[in-house]
Amino acid sequence: MGRFIDWIKRNKLSTLLILISIYLLGKTGFSPFLGYNIAIPNPKNYDSNRQIGSLPMAGGPANESSEDSNYAASQPTNRMVAKNANLSLQVKNVIETLKRIDEYTASIGGYMVDSNLSSPKEAPYGSITIRIPQEKLDEALNQFQSMAVKVVSKQVYSYDITEEYIDIETRLNTLTANQKRFKEIMDQATKPDDILKIQQQIFNLQDQIDKLYGRQKYMEQTAKTAKITVYLSTDEFALPYTGGESFRPEVIFKTAVRSLIQNLQKIAALFIWIIVYTPLILIIIITSILIRKKFFKKQ
């Protein structure tokens, strides 16, 4: 700091010129930015009846400003929200409960995505993933919980897929417009090579359109249905846990005991394998010794 003050004292004229330049820049050079008015779209001007699928295509009406279209795209009225849920249930009979869940799902217009069942020595374990109408989510969760001896954990969450849906809609509009343009060009083409090249472009565009259209339909179906995954077991500690307690000593103890038993079983199995193969190993060793002795006698 002292050196800076000394420099100012030694260069008074330079310091004065710098201050004057800063003052003039502040009065003239920066004033256009300070006085610039940024136009912010008014939410009142947004058409609340506009649907997600009615976004303007590229090259649409010129009287609609880009700011308005961007605002409409980022603020859709019909939000598309996907809902999922996970349940961990302790039940008396895993197989019977899986059957009851499947039957109830079909009765409310849903369907099973996948189902798994295993019967280890410790406790039977199963899981089932279903999709049901989204408005039936709470009813279904209550129904499934009523089948349990104990609800070990419950998790319900949702995520917004509106922006991705709008992005796909925009890309579809652009690809469709490009494909239409290529078809118009192909109608005017006369050379076979040109026609083949244009056809290839049209086929490539159609392939992209089909993939995006399939993705769009999947998202529409996802927004209409809710996915529920139910984990079932007769043993509470065999189930996935999503509660607030991160430390559960009883679970850790039982898991450690099971791990110890499994390791002891592996060691016992290894000894059994060794005992079974010992005679064969001895025969191989004795045979190799006899062959070596016979070989040395000949020498």
The largest β sheet comes out as: 5 strands, mixed
Q: Which spans of ≥5 residues are poorly predicted at pLDDT below 50?
A: 27-76
Overall spatial form: extended
CATH class of the domain at 81-161 and 225-238: Alpha Beta
Strands, count: 5
The CATH architecture designation of the domain at 81-161 and 225-238 is 2-Layer Sandwich
Instruction: Give the ordered list of helices and strands.
Output: HHHHEHEEHEHHEH
Kindly identify the CATH topology of the domain at 81-161 and 225-238: Alpha-Beta Plaits
The residue-averaged pLDDT reads: 76
Question: What structural class results from the helix and strand content?
Answer: alpha+beta
Our Rg estimate from Cα atoms comes to 37 Å
Q: In what range is the share of β-strand residues?
A: 15-25%
Distance between the termini: 99 Å
Largest beta sheet: strand ordering: 2-3-5-1-4
Could you explain how this protein is built, in words?
By secondary structure, the protein is an alpha+beta fold. It is 58% helix and 16% strand. It has helices at residues 2-10, 12-29, 31-34, 66-74, 94-107, 137-146, 162-188, 192-224, 249-298, and strands at residues 81-90, 111-118, 125-133, 150-160, 225-233. Strands 2-3-5-1-4 form a 5-stranded mixed beta sheet. A hairpin with a 6-residue loop joins β2 and β3. The longest helix is centred in the C-terminal third of the chain and has 50 residues, at 249-298. The chain is extended.
